[in-house]
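Technical note accompanying the year-one report. For the benefit of new consortium partners, we illustrate the data format agreed upon in the data management plan: each record pairs a sequence with a structure-token string. No post-processing was applied to the example shown here.
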Amino acid sequence: MQLNIAKTQMYRNEEITRNIDWMTVILYMACVIMGWLNVFAAVYNPEDQTSIFDFSNNAGKQLMWIGTSLILIICILVIHHRFYDSFAYIFYGVMILMLLLVLVAGSNINGSRSWFKFGPVSIQPAEFAKVATSLALARFLDAPGINLTKRKDLLYIAGFIGLPAILIIASNETGSTLVFASFVIMLYREGLPGFIPAIGIAAAALLVLSLIVPKLYIFLAIAGLAMLVIWMMPRYNRTPTNILSISLIGVIMMGVVTGVDFFVNDVLQKHQRNRIKVLIDPNIDPLGVGWNVTQAKIAIGSGRLHGKGFLEGTQTKFDFVPEQSTDFIFCTIGEEHGFVGSAIVVALFIGLLCRLIFLAERQRSKFSRVYGYCVAGIIFFHVMVNIGMTIGIMPVIGIPLPFFSYGGSSLWSFTILLFIFLKLDSRRTSMFARG
């Protein structure tokens, strides 16, 4: 009897870990451990002999979050893979309710009412909204007959993405809102017409150009480009309708350029305008609004090739860079481990992203593939923007570096996001493709 129970338990343990992609797990653990060590480096005080296991500082607290993340991983792997598909819409609905509730009962931290406080613990629903939205989108796109060239389906998808994004921006959490743009990567893979993301990229480019180039030059460039397109068209396509359409697009682009001043000065808040100004001109106010970016670049640059050594960063020790254990954790990596250490971290993320794309492409279920691309897109956006803002090529929007930045909500959300996909991937051979 006891032997049978032992065999049954052994079989269940094998079932839990069967077909798990261990390469992804290793990359995850490497990122988490390196992140923990760098959080400790960011808060280390040589005078107080700060301990990495001191639960009163961020490093000790991060260790607790890592421990609870392991519990979450076990729970995710134990649950049947169909659970995530079947309850995707319920997860989404619950998360929308949480985003509404936080607007009313949430705590205001750093000007953002997006946190629930439970004693010393703070939870940010916006981080988990990315998981719920990914599951809901995967469930919707997995339904028969969904086509991303149909206006009706595009409106549904816009609603799935737009509703949590609007609620998050209502809590004054702009950075987390912008992350929802990463779903375009998945949508493009699933058949979204290329002109839609192209319009978004063109609008962003016009916004930046309008702030650094005189508008007259941009108008002349748009007019010249429109005439060049018309001239290069085959004669049989050079119809009045096509010429009018191209001219109308040019006029709309000029209208966007004209409205940039209104958008920046009357729509954006003061701190958002300042971030854009710092991006355009990093030296505009190095002791004021440009302080974070200036000190971040100094910290990274001072690391040179091999860095100053673990726990030897002077910019870190004297608190020149604010939020260095959270949003600006990459500064610690650059200063203490130099170009080599920074390159290793970037290589880890590239390896993780490549692995996620590989796993997504081998899925037999459309639900799993769509969800996998959502995971890859979200992580890519976070890495690109977080590292970009520390080296001055992206605006400072306050989003964490996945698995590295201090914070329970961030670590939990990325862990859940990743391991749900690993659970789905581990059961791909038993899941029937439905689309």
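Partners are asked to follow this layout when depositing records. The beta strands are 107-109, 112-118, 121-123.
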